[in-house]
Amino acid sequence: MHWAEGLLALVDGRPREALQHLEQAQSPECRVCGLPELGLAHETLGDTAAARRRYREFIETPTHRRTELADGLHRGWVLARLSGGGPAWSPAGP
Question: Which pTM does this prediction carry?
Answer without folding.
Answer: 0.82
